[in-house]
């Protein structure tokens, strides 16, 4: 089944974005719903991956170049979809004149982001009760 990755609009695609993030962050990782939704939702550029019209992955980038809320539903993990989504977001950033992007990677996913060209910076920290590390990718 073909997977479509596209830019998404928070107002128009909110339910699909929320469905993925709720499944991954709130139900699987026990992130408090009160901190999952923030003041960046309206201004960030969101992205959706759809398979057969169903949402299977999402992510966003803020105006400052911070990639976040990367989530892939359990059934799609290991398929390469997360990497494709991340590359799609990075290409969007390049096309919009960002010289670099950064993210707060969950420490267990550090290797995934390294393979995508990100470099760890600084010390580990806890966010939403989960160990994270800041990672940066610079564009040449």
UniProtKB/TrEMBL annotation:
Q: Does the keyword Acyltransferase apply?
A: yes
Q: Which UniProt keywords apply?
A: Acyltransferase, Transferase
Under the heading PROSITE patterns, the entry gives: GNAT (PS51186)
What domain of life? Bacteria
Reply yes or no: does the keyword Iron apply: no
Q: What is the lineage of its organism?
A: Bacteria, Pseudomonadati, Pseudomonadota, Gammaproteobacteria, Cellvibrionales
Q: What is this protein called?
A: GNAT family N-acetyltransferase
Q: Which InterPro entries match?
A: Acyl_CoA_acyltransferase, Bact_Acetyltransf, GNAT_dom
CDD domains per UniProt? NAT_SF
Q: Which organism is it from?
A: Microbulbifer taiwanensis
Pfam families the UniProt entry points to: Acetyltransf_10
Ranges for domain N-acetyltransferase? 3-140
């Amino acid at each position: 089944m073909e997977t479509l990755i596209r830019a998404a609009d928070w107002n128009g695609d909110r339910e699909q974005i929320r469905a993925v993030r709720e499944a991954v962050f709130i139900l699987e990782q026990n992130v408090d719903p009160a901190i999952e939704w923030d003041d960046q939702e309206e201004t960030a550029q969101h992205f959706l991956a759809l398979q057969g019209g169903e949402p299977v992955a999402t992510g966003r980038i803020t105006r400052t170049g911070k990639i976040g809320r990367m989530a892939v539903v359990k059934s799609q993990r290991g398929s390469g979809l997360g990497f494709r989504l991340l590359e799609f977001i990075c290409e969007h950033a390049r096309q919009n004149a960002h010289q670099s992007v950064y993210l707060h990677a969950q420490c267990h996913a550090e290797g995934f982001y390294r393979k995508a060209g990100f470099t760890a910076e600084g010390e580990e920290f806890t966010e939403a009760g989960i160990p994270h590390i800041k990672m940066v990718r610079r564009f040449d």
